[in-house]
Write a structure and sequence with these properties.
CATH topology: Four Helix Bundle (Hemerythrin (Met), subunit A)
CATH architecture: Up-down Bundle
Helix content: 55-70%
Shape: elongated
Order of helices and strands: HHHH
Radius of gyration: 19 Å
Largest sheet: none
Bound molecules: zinc ion
Strand content: under 5%
Number of domains: 1
Low-confidence stretches: none
Oligomer: single chain
Distance between the termini: 36 Å
């Protein structure tokens, strides 16, 4: 088993744990908002922060799963878009990367692509 796969599997467990905690926060049994208005605002704000974090963790988990699938298929170090080899240095920094630097840069630009 490659180091990268080990790193990704640990990351996946870690992310799944974090998701579980966010979900526990949002499905708390004491769901009623505090009757005091300022307290309500704080609670809502917290919920929004948690929502944002949850979405980030979920997105990262999807990337990790995808990278693991590609490793299983033996193409874990190939760019998903252009098929070029992904720089090993990049994979050390971003073990869940499935795009080469050029394609990742291209997809990160908003409103472009196709
Ligand atoms: Zn590429």
């Amino acid at each position: 088993m490659s180091d990268r796969k080990l790193v990704l599997e640990e990351l996946r467990i870690d992310l799944a744990e974090r998701l579980k905690r966010f979900q526990a926060h949002q499905h708390r049994e004491d769901g009623a908002l505090d009757p005091d208005f300022s307290e309500q605002a704080v609670e809502r704000q917290n919920d929004e922060v948690v929502d944002g974090l949850e979405n980030e963790v979920r997105a990262e988990l999807i990337k990790v799963n995808r990278a693991l699938e590609r490793i299983e298929e033996g193409i874990g170090d190939e760019c998903e878009k252009c098929g070029a080899a992904i720089n090993p240095e990049r994979l050390k920094v971003l073990p869940y990367a499935t795009f080469c630097v050029a394609c990742a840069g291209a997809t990160a630009a908003p409103g472009q692509g196709g």
